[in-house]
Amino acid sequence: MPIDFEFTEEQQMFRDTIRDFGENEITPLVEEAETNEKFPVEIFPKLGEMGFLGISMPEEYGGVGLDKVTECIFAEEMGRINAGIAMCINAHTSLSMVPIEKFGNDAQKEKYLIPGIEGKIIGALGLTEPDAGSDARAIRATAVKKDDKYVINGTKTWITNGTMCDYVIVAAYTDKTKKGTGISLFIIDSDAPGFTEKNKIHKLGHRSADTAELVFENCEVPEENLLVGEGGFNGAMATLLGARITHAAKSVGLSQAAFEFALNYSKEREAFGRAISKFQAISFKLAEMAVKIETARLLVYKAAWLYSTDKNALKEASMAKLYAAEVVQEVCTEAVQVLGGYGYGVEFPVERYYRDAKLASITEGTSEIQHVVIARELGI
């Protein structure tokens, strides 16, 4: 059976549409968003209208019903435009809506999934805490049942879309005696009583991404907002495997942006009477960058294909995420080097690419955790 590495005609048209939308609707907003450290929320309804927020969501809820490969095409193109903006979109589609689509009841899907796909509301996932990152079982947030409500107490941090979300899916212990299995997931509206603080976090990179610390003090949540009860937490987290793949695709997009800028600059910048791209020291850098980006891209789309065909993609997703994170940091570092002093200044976007690249090895499971997953899948 032949192996086809080409996108379908429909997927190629989809890529062209995304690229056109990104360059016309998002690119003009990037500089202001980065300077003000504020995500341009006005693009969400536009993304929804174009169907970009429901690419892999079921058609019955207003989604497009396509596969993970197509969703990764979108994530890659968004990463190429701006990493911070891409991150907020990914957090909404892959982290906040997927658990509702997989585990929500009809009422929850009606209230959150449909308008989420339309871009009328924005979601977030509240898992990480000040003392619990890679080890999700170490969270301290609690949810106590009182009559027909749950009372939630705890703090979540590094939450993408935190200050601008309309709802957040929060992990909290309903039974502290059962480590891991005693965790439940709740859908909490941003105006819920006791949802007291949404403190913005200022960052090295991804400055256009909304990132916040969320505080819940005796936050009252209706019983019907329980999304996943005890014992279902690990299964729910497993559904977020797809987010790891789209994050890797975003890293590939950022790598591509840095490479393209460095390549074009090297063809125009002259030294000693000729374009610097003609010097072996520069041409070999660019060749190596191109090889690594293409390798990362192949890993991403293989993982996406496995995921789309319901095959085990755990190892490949971690490989794609790990390698794409390494590549984006290497490529962005080399892009700065190609530009020299101009790469270090703010006149060109390469210094932003460099700052944005670092997060790839930290978020959505650190590179260290990806090594653990891969080794475990190898049986060691």
Structure class: alpha+beta
Q: How many H/I helices?
A: 12
The largest sheet, given as strand count, sense and whether it forms a barrel, is: 4 strands, mixed
CATH topology of the largest domain: Butyryl-CoA Dehydrogenase, subunit A, domain 3
Low-confidence stretches: none
Helix content: 40-55%
Alpha-carbon distance between the two ends: 32 Å
Q: Roughly how many Å is the radius of gyration?
A: 21 Å
Q: Quick check: average pLDDT?
A: 95
- CATH classification class of the largest domain: Mainly Alpha
Shape assignment: globular
Q: What is the fourth-level CATH superfamily of the largest domain?
A: Butyryl-CoA Dehydrogenase, subunit A, domain 3
CATH-derived architecture of the largest domain: Up-down Bundle
Oligomer: single chain
Order of helices and strands: HHHHHEEEEEEEEHHEEHHHHH
Features:
380 residues; 12 helices; Butyryl-Coa Dehydrogenase, subunit A, domain 1; four-stranded antiparallel sheet; Butyryl-CoA Dehydrogenase, subunit A, domain 3; 16% strand; globular; Butyryl-CoA Dehydrogenase, subunit A, domain 2; alpha+beta; single chain; four-stranded mixed sheet
